[in-house]
Amino acid sequence: MIVINSKDKRIKIGLEIHLQLSTGKLFCKCPDINSTGIKGKFTRKLFPTENESGDVDVAALQEERKNVIYEYQVTDNSCLVEADEEPPHEINAEALETALSIAFSLNSEVLNAVSVMRKVVVDGSNTSGFQRTAVVSTGGYITINGKKVGLTTICIEEDSARRVESGNNYTAFSLDRLGIPLVEISTAPDIETFQEAVDVAREIGMRAMLTGNIRRDSDAIRQDVNFSMGYGRVEIKGISKLSLISEALIAEEKRQKYLAEAVGILVERGGFNGTVLIDYTEKIGKSESKIIQKGIASGNRIYIGKLENLGGILKAGDYRIGKEIADALKLFSIGGFIHSDELPGYGLTEDEVNNIKKFLKCEEKDAIILISIPESKKDLAQDAINKRIEKLSSLNFSETRAANEDGTSRFLRPISGSGRMYPETDIPTIKINEGTLNRLNLDSPKSFDQSLLSFTKEWDISRQEAEIILATGRKKEFIELSRLWEKPREVSRILLQFVPEMERKYKRKLDYNDLKRLTEKIATKNYGRISLEIAIEQCISGKNIETVLMSDDIRPLDRSELKSIVENLRKSGDVKKENIIAKVKNETPRPVDPKIVMELYQNT
Amino acid sequence: MIVINSKDKRIKIGLEIHLQLSTGKLFCKCPDINSTGIKGKFTRKLFPTENESGDVDVAALQEERKNVIYEYQVTDNSCLVEADEEPPHEINAEALETALSIAFSLNSEVLNAVSVMRKVVVDGSNTSGFQRTAVVSTGGYITINGKKVGLTTICIEEDSARRVESGNNYTAFSLDRLGIPLVEISTAPDIETFQEAVDVAREIGMRAMLTGNIRRDSDAIRQDVNFSMGYGRVEIKGISKLSLISEALIAEEKRQKYLAEAVGILVERGGFNGTVLIDYTEKIGKSESKIIQKGIASGNRIYIGKLENLGGILKAGDYRIGKEIADALKLFSIGGFIHSDELPGYGLTEDEVNNIKKFLKCEEKDAIILISIPESKKDLAQDAINKRIEKLSSLNFSETRAANEDGTSRFLRPISGSGRMYPETDIPTIKINEGTLNRLNLDSPKSFDQSLLSFTKEWDISRQEAEIILATGRKKEFIELSRLWEKPREVSRILLQFVPEMERKYKRKLDYNDLKRLTEKIATKNYGRISLEIAIEQCISGKNIETVLMSDDIRPLDRSELKSIVENLRKSGDVKKENIIAKVKNETPRPVDPKIVMELYQNT
Amino acid sequence: MVQTEFVRGTKLKITYNGNELDVTYISKEEGYLTVKLQNGYNITIPENKITVLKSSEPQPVKKKSITLKHGNGIPISLITTGGTIVSAIDYDTGAVHPSTDIRKIIDRYPYMEEKYAISVREFDNILSENMQPNMWIKLAAVIKEELSKSKGVLVSHGTDTMSYTASALAFMFEKLTGPVVMVGSQRSSDRPSSDSFGNMEGAMAFSSTNVGEICISMHSGTSDDSISLHRGTRTRKMHSTRRDAFRSVSGTPIAKFRNKNIEFLSEYKEKSDEILLTGKLEEEISMIYFHPGLKGEDIEKISEGKKAIIIMGSGLGHISQSLFPSVKKVIGTGTKIVMTTQCMSGIVDLNVYSTGRELKKLGVVSAENMLPEVALTKSMYLLGNYPHEDFEQMMKVNMRGEILEREFLGDCY
Amino acid sequence: MVQTEFVRGTKLKITYNGNELDVTYISKEEGYLTVKLQNGYNITIPENKITVLKSSEPQPVKKKSITLKHGNGIPISLITTGGTIVSAIDYDTGAVHPSTDIRKIIDRYPYMEEKYAISVREFDNILSENMQPNMWIKLAAVIKEELSKSKGVLVSHGTDTMSYTASALAFMFEKLTGPVVMVGSQRSSDRPSSDSFGNMEGAMAFSSTNVGEICISMHSGTSDDSISLHRGTRTRKMHSTRRDAFRSVSGTPIAKFRNKNIEFLSEYKEKSDEILLTGKLEEEISMIYFHPGLKGEDIEKISEGKKAIIIMGSGLGHISQSLFPSVKKVIGTGTKIVMTTQCMSGIVDLNVYSTGRELKKLGVVSAENMLPEVALTKSMYLLGNYPHEDFEQMMKVNMRGEILEREFLGDCY
């Protein structure tokens, strides 16, 4: 039995934490929030450059990708820069300062100058074919449960375009996310347990939140995990929830253990010498298997191959070399693939399987595969299978994997080399003056508790409220609204209680800009909380913001209006000091000032 | 009884003959032929200027027209000049020379300098709001049956846009015709009989045809007729066929005679003092008349008015003052109008009519009218009716009328004054040098017979063929094709016989440019008539010209191809000198040179 | 020799080609007489072919005075400066000349006279290519005066240099209490098809909005159905003859007027409570269009005595390296050199290529994505009103919407 | 003080901030050292913060020689002149520089190597803003040589002055035996998103058509799906940064390449049986951009010693009347003055307004609707090869499609 999640001495974990900033985009003046839908579309091709992908057969990949069309959806928060039709503008100073502030907060050594690099990425997620990224500081540490976990670098970079659709030779991206500033914090591989990984990620996230400039979007914080247990370094990218970090690590440890075992069996049997795919279409043409028939109907050929010594470890128990091969094939858009550990099955009869085995002169320990592909892809497929098995056989599992929603991961690409980086020549090195650095260092949040204390004091709100505001990234909004309407307690209440309540009630989000406009109106007109709440509810319930702003509904009743109500009520009798306010409120949906009502009631 | 078409001494007739030239447009480089459909559309408004329309109440007309939208359909043979988006280019030299040549041919005194004018036209038929026109010569004459008919001026001008659709406040024009050069030849009012008018028009047309530059389009030649018989001058515009000239004159003489009689009756009864329209909607609202009910339903009011002394002459026998009023109302887009000579009728009962008459205190000799219009048009309508009757009462019928297809005509506008002309400042006065004038004078066709003679001699074709070529305006095409393919007799046969025959067979026209390309191909390749005929038939039958040009079908069989056919036939026996050519032709749809066949037959 | 020269409009009786004709004298040039026949046509004939029998002086035409109804409408001032938009035609002689008689245009839209109380002020009557920077200063003063009396000001102006004038005014007026709408036309108002009427109708409508900027009101397309309101600092005459010549370069117009209705299409600066006018301009500034074959000495010669030079460079703002020594010399004498692009649109970026980086080092100032013409007027304004050492920094500041912070792909791609 | 300056690419061991790091030396500027970390990032640090422990010279990079397969494909010559289209990147140090290694581009479309037998000839390696008229003459000679050996010629060229070069070549070559297609790019070929690849693929395809003109092959739109072929005498770089910067001004491109297929959109001149090259150009010609504030003396100064001056006037071809005396003086010295319009499109017409008519009388030559840059190269050609008295007449003759005989409204109105 294999032990999972133990404090295995060989296990080393490192994290890369990516935080989106709410400062507007990094190299243009576009906002980070997209307010409307798709404004237009365009298509591009990307041409892989030599160094982009380490070990993968570049020529093959190029051949494969040259016909891939990337479609980009233009959004309101994108301009010529996102379309790769204009050089980047000067770096967003607020974003850079936020990154530096986080660096100071994490004891990292801030550089006096920032050199922006291009990191080549040709999966279409960057219109330019590269991501702009720059180191802002090196080193640093964070203390978790008394243990210092080291940091290697803190970078500021552009977020990539959001993938919205994927076809065979076609992928569509939205430009809404492209160019949003990301702060990337990389730890050293100092983390030893899965829980520790979660704790480190949480603490770093919290500290960054204190800047008030972290976006509050569902994928605003994403983690990459570096994991090694003796079989090379595996990088799992794109874990969007804290809770999934440990699940991903558990799954990866399990995968590597069983892979290593399976490879052990393979080696013991004599290893793998490469397979040759043979066109078997004519021979199996009469099979009743739907996969076979569908393949042939769409013009595919049916290839078979012998996988020497791989019988019983492609898919049996926890052995899963078959899935590894399938992942490798998927890179070239090859989906259909059947192996003998699953056979008979897929409509193939025992006889048909045996015939293939006989044809390929298989022994018991060998496996066979069937694959339905166009003739043009045969060499690609054969190559991909052989390379994958060879790589695994070497017991060096180093590679980049993508996190799945369920905690597992899939093969993405080999670990990228440093070769895919070169300078962004359009942006001169950015010198940061000493004064700015000193100011940022001084102001940077040194710990959550310390920040909480000063925040609570500054705004005169409860510690509990302050904690929620800081921890949920509402600091910036809170400060902005409190400056508009100088009632921080009311603002806090609106932000933390009323708005979420209404959003639940109407199953609808309130746009922050709308909230800001409503608050400004109430502040300028000196209307009070009730008015704001009525306005917010009307907005969330679907009313047009302009209508709400102009509506009489949010204007408190004035003295003369109240007077006539009070007098009418008095005429109808049945009013007393105890119920007069409730009665007046019953008469109107508009805000009522109880003080004035009481005054009017008593003085007439 | 009134005598029609007599040699009435009072009758004076003048003609304006308009001939479209096939030289390309007058003030830009666009061709006069449109090769495709509609390329796009745009809309314009035109703002009447003070002087445009003589006597009509300009203010009223402006009020009426200011919301009229003109839509223009852009065609392939129009550019920015037609769209009134670019100043006119230099005048088309060939067009100007053609006009001058016609002038010389008609003994007119050619001017040494041409000053282009703008003639204001705001019915939308000119995108600029004016027509460019210039006098090229003054005076001149033509001799018909021994009588000299004088000319006043010969002008060169732009044709107007073609009206394709008309709605209430909307008219659509095609730009295909706009800017095509027109030569306008105006005769003095020397013509005395209707037949003479036809003869003069025919002779002038023939003479112009000799230039070879008159278009062969259905409306390429249009005549305006000036007619007077003592009641002022009436101009009837746009008679497109020679045969309609006399019909139009007959109709106009009749119209004026009966109008004069009717006016006589009116004057005898005491004349007309103007009508006042009264809103009668409430009173007649219950009528079962569909006109009334439809009018009310669409928001109209029903007005009635008394036409003093007009009973029985609005529409009775040949008296038709009612139609004159209706035409005047139509100018303001007022359609519905009923008068007592038609009543009872239109669903109005005897009682209803009598009630109106009683209401208006009508006597026997008076007429009544009913008119269904929006309230806003009441004053306009009243004014139009009163002005029209006053004008007729004066026995001065001078006006401009438009020819209908059936020989009758309708009121168009008052005779335009000279005030609507001013210089085209974008085009400097065009000086014509003496050399050019002398050459044109020398070359100008002095009579049809003389031209025919020299044409027949020059091209060595039969007199009959030459006559048809000249009289039907095919001179230019004939010369062009004969220069490409130096076989004028073959060209004549193709033009006059083969093409018309094929066009009848396939019920389809052959584009002249296609014919030119085919002829050029045959000439360059030295292929011969059969090839050209095959090519023409294929084209007319609907094959793409490019395909035809590239096709092997039109290439005559070469010697070796013929040889193998001849040999094959010989092998099959049954060939002799008499049938060999027919047999060979039977074997192939491609052109066969009988000489070679015979040679091959005899020499092997 | 008989007299053949007369006052335009003189009625003559002549003999020509054996006939006696009553004509109106128009002009005489190079021995040719142009006369108007009674049917309205002009003919031009050699003077030696005619004999003048009789002549009578023309009646002087009474000049109609401009009288507009002044109802209770919105008070609008119209300042006329000349140009094609208001032109008059003398039908007797055919002469067309710029006019200030706005009556002709207002007449086309009688409702305008009800809706607005229009006061007309004649500033000048010139073709716009003759407009000089010192006249912009005077015009600004007149606009200030008129705007203080009305809700908005219209300025009728020739189209040739309208966008220069608009951008110069835009810099001079830091604050406005209402819209200042410049309006012109590409077809003169003597033609039935003139765009004057539509452009003026749109301009009137725009003049009573809350916009507090200097704008230009012209046709949106070739059709007469839509009039665009452009920002004065982002507009250019893009075609010599079309109605829709004026475009908001790389951006969207502020608004469109269509079916008597204004639709706002992009953000604008709202009107202020006060007018703030800084009416100084440095006039010693010239523009240079870079091209292959341009010599360093050309730059040096034209720069003599200039306070600044606007270069329209190629691409991202480049010029041939052979010109660098001259650029260095000129900058050495204290003349500012501003780099724009002749590409019509797109940004100047001196960071991308080595030539750009060298120019930056020499002290050349990038005009970002300002239009070259606007870089000119902005330089005139900055050097007229700011310390010279702030020049480079202020060129980068988006003062009047002259810099597009974001450029979009547009709808057609 | 320790040594901190090295050859680019030198491997260093340094201490920084207490850590030992293996880095690659990139550059040093103003006391800052830029080094590449092992993870690929460059960092820039004050030199006083680091200590260099060890250094080792970089290995010289072997220059790859260009070898293209020469099958039985269509023979095409590619002449490289520099510019963005072929650029190389040294991943070790990050330097990007113009290159002539066309291999990188051909590689993207392996089928091209089968289809064409491409011979590459290096003409020069410069940024196009440094291209001068005398180089056009040399380039023309090289093109003639190459075209005599192949079916078509490609010329890779920087985009900044590509249309100047194209139009100059167009005038010099009266006849061509095949297409001469200029190709450039707006994004350098070191980027995965470069437009070089697509532009080159289109250019290759165009190079084996029957076109006998000098053309430009660039992106039709921002998308990578369509490449346009423009006439060299009607094209202009209309945007400083966009892929679709090149446009056929006021007209339609000759053809489009899409899905490996060429569609012809307008008429073109077919190739001839012979090459006719007249390789002379008059270089003493300058351009002047009219603007308010332009002084007569500016015109006079820049005209000294010039054979012709191209004025970019306003509107239909106007300049301020205050400049007329100088124009008269300059023409008096024998210098030709050609009037174009700064409106980008539309015709010059000196008949419409009085200022135009006066300029015409002074002897100013109208460039019709020629682009100003093309009026420049045409003047260079005419004054280099024709009698000067034929200048005005030849300017009006449409020699190489430089004059649009008809301008259309376009599809969007």
Question: In a nutshell, what does this entry contain?
Answer:
Chain A is of the alpha+beta class. Chain A is about 40% helix and about 20% strand. Chain C is an alpha/beta fold.
Characterization of this structure:
The complex is a heterotetramer, with two copies of chain A (604 residues) and two copies of chain C (413 residues). With 604 residues, chain A is α+β, with helices and mostly antiparallel strands. Chain A has four domains: 12-233, no CATH class; 267-397, GAD-like domain (Gyrase A, domain 2, 2-Layer Sandwich); 446-554, no CATH class; 559-603. In chain A, 39% of the residues lie in helices and 20% in strands. In chain A, strand 19 (399-403) and strand 20 (409-413) form a beta hairpin. Chain A is elongated and about 110 Å long. Chain C has three domains: 11-56, Roll (SH3 type barrels), CATH 2.30.30; 69-277, Rossmann fold, CATH 3.40.50.1170; 285-395, 3-Layer(aba) Sandwich (Rossmann fold), CATH 3.40.50. In chain C, helix 3 packs across helix 4 (162-172). The interface between C and D is large, with 70 and 70 residues.
